[in-house]
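Design job #97: recover the sequence.
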């Protein structure tokens, strides 16, 4: 088969790779329907994370079951399945508590920009649709496997409630999906922080009521201005930098909540400041598996269309250009077709 391999910063190549095989009776092999480039793939691509030896990339996938191990009975060959970037047995104590992305048998996916993918913990990880969905739904379902699930978790962790005010820090695919989630959870006012016209437009389409273009202290001042001087009920932090985290924490009102889902890079939280702020803070890798049945349903019924975050579609063999376009912010998110 063929797939993407990263060799060095800004050096992603499309290469022949060995076909994945079932390694454990709990594995499945899927044939990729569509895959994509994740914002978090840009960290190593930009040299902000060590790469080490050349290795395959990406953790977002939807596809057709090709083969299952002897212990996998929940899905069968031919079915269309959606999974999560973090695999889970869905039976251990952490899974039962709804934190499948902290499963005791968790394995993170990392080889999805390829024709075929091995899925560990397939029984607990994969959710099959009733029928093979039309191709028009594939991008939305692919988004559910990570960015939409993560945006949902951000809103959930920030405790968005009907009638509340939510601020979304970050206008990448996750932030935009966070806008969708806040809308679905009933936020009355959704303030998206974005400087890019195309992203502002999509944020509005997804339900943002206000756009704030300022950043840092100016951004915080603007949020205060828009929220009666006290800050927002819920803030979704969808970037993962020191600046975005500080902006998020300072945008929440006393008693408000910050959901942080951007993988932190050089982020330090001041304990004393957090203590006196009365702001609640929760985040981490999204327990996407918890939300899968609900989010798949919302996509297939047309209630949400997170597939709109893909504004560039390329054949999988042009994966390198897919990274480049996102790195240069010419694309929000690249969809790749095998
Ligand atoms: Zn991702
Ligand atoms: Zn588990």
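Job complete. Output follows.
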């Amino acid at each position: 088969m063929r797939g993407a391999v990263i060799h060095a910063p800004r050096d992603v190549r499309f290469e022949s790779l060995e076909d994945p095989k079932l390694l454990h009776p709990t594995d499945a092999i899927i044939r990729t329907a569509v895959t994509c480039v994740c914002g978090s793939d840009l960290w190593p691509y930009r040299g902000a994370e060590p790469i080490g030896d050349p290795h395959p990339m990406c953790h977002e996938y939807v596809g057709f079951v090709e083969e299952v191990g002897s212990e996998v009975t929940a899905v069968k060959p031919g079915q269309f399945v959606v999974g999560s970037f973090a695999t889970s047995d869905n039976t251990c104590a952490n899974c039962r508590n709804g934190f499948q992305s902290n499963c005791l048998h968790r394995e993170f996916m990392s080889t999805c920009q390829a024709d075929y993918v091995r899925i560990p913990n397939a029984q607990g990880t994969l959710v099959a649709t009733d029928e093979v969905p039309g191709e028009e739904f594939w991008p939305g379902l692919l988004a559910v496997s990570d960015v939409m699930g993560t945006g949902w978790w951000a809103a959930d962790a920030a405790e968005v409630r009907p009638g509340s005010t939510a601020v979304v820090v970050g206008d990448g695919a996750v932030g935009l999906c966070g806008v969708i989630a806040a809308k679905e959870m009933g936020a009355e006012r959704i303030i998206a922080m974005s400087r890019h016209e195309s992203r502002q437009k999509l944020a509005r389409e997804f339900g943002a009521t206000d756009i704030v273009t300022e950043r840092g202290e100016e951004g915080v001042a603007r949020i205060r201005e828009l929220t009666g001087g006290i800050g927002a009920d819920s803030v979704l932090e969808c970037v993962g930098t020191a600046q975005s985290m500080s902006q998020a924490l300072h945008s929440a009102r006393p008693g408000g909540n910050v959901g942080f889902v951007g993988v932190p890079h050089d982020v330090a939280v001041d304990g004393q400041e957090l203590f006196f702020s009365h702001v609640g803070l929760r985040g981490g890798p999204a327990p996407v598996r918890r939300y899968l049945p609900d989010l798949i349903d919302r996509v297939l019924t047309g209630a949400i269309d997170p597939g709109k975050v893909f504004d560039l579609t390329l054949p999988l063999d042009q994966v390198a250009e897919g990274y480049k376009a996102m790195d240069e912010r010419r694309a929000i998110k690249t969809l790749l077709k095998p």
